[in-house]
Structures are given as structure tokens and as C-alpha cells.
Amino acid sequence: MAKFTIHTIETAPEEGKPLLETSLKNNGRIPGLHGTMADAPSLLAAYNFAHQQFMATSMTDEEKTVVWQTVNVEQDCHYCVPAHTGIAKMMKVDDAITEALRNETPLPTAKLGALRNFTLLMVRNRGFVDDADTQTFLEAGFTETNILEIILGVAQKVMSNYTNHFAKTPVDKVFQKFAWEKAPIAAE
Known about the structure:
Layout: H1 17-27, H2 32-37, H3 41-55, H4 61-74, H5 80-90, H6 95-103, H7 110-124, H8 131-139, H9 144-167
Helix pairs in contact: 3-9, 4-5, 4-6, 4-7, 4-9, 7-8
């Protein structure tokens, strides 16, 4: 079994030290995900860049949260679901949206539901979403630009979710109160 290190500034490879210093400055702490990614500084740099770019998209904070948490829940990320629950609170996203995403229950608006459905189709079908489903998404009030922005959000989450799957990154203390487990699939 692979054993991953959660680096500090002192233990990180030289190229990772400035990335962790920035993480500490921006977050007031070094998230476990960043400490783990620091072992491959290019991964942490790519993740940070993808995050900055996704934050700069045309999507609202609610819509960004829907994309992030949809991917996190679908990919069963024990670390990212609690982290993005806390992040959603910091972004002032309605708790009803967060709980619907965490529990895979209906979202409060049809537009957000369409976003979650389209994001799920994109993830499950590895980017092959048929024309009818794409048209439904567009008719819900989204654009072709939003499709490209979702691709960016999915790419960001693949980096973090897969890292956490391999490293079994412990949930940061600040987010432990938002611990999460995927609901079991109901028997039919």
C-alpha cells in the first residue's frame, strides 16, 4: 500500500515550499490536500491555477458549489465534500443547496437541478453528453461557455478527489464538523 506524506513547509520538496507558503498565507493554515499535493509541486500548482480560474468563471457561487459538490459526491470524496461544505458556508451559499448536494436530493431550483444533472452526465459519460441532454441544459438558462467552465471545474475536482482517494487525506480539523459519507444505494 502506498503511503503519502502530508508535507509542511519544512518537509516539502524545494519547489513545493513556496506553494505551501502561499497556501498558508491564503488560508491561515495548510490544508491537508495541499500538503499532500506538495510532494508533486506541479500537481499542486496546476490545482491552484485551476481553482483560481474556476473562481473567475461566469458562474455564481451557488453554481460553482453545485459543480464542485456534484463531482465530489459522485466520486465519493471523503475529504472534499466536508471541505466544500465549509467553503460553501464561507461563500454564503444557502444551506439548503449544500444539503441537497450532500444528500443527493432535489435542489431548490430547476436551474440548479439542470446544472447538477448536466455535470453528472459529463462525469459519468466522460464528456460524451448527447445533443438532447445538452439542449436541455442550455434551455435551463446556461450557455456554451458554461459547458466549458464545467469542464474546468471537473478537471479541478479530478485532481483533488483522486489525490484524496490514494492518500486517504484526513479531513482538516476546521471541516471535521461537516464529515460526510455517501448514502447507501437503496435496494429496488
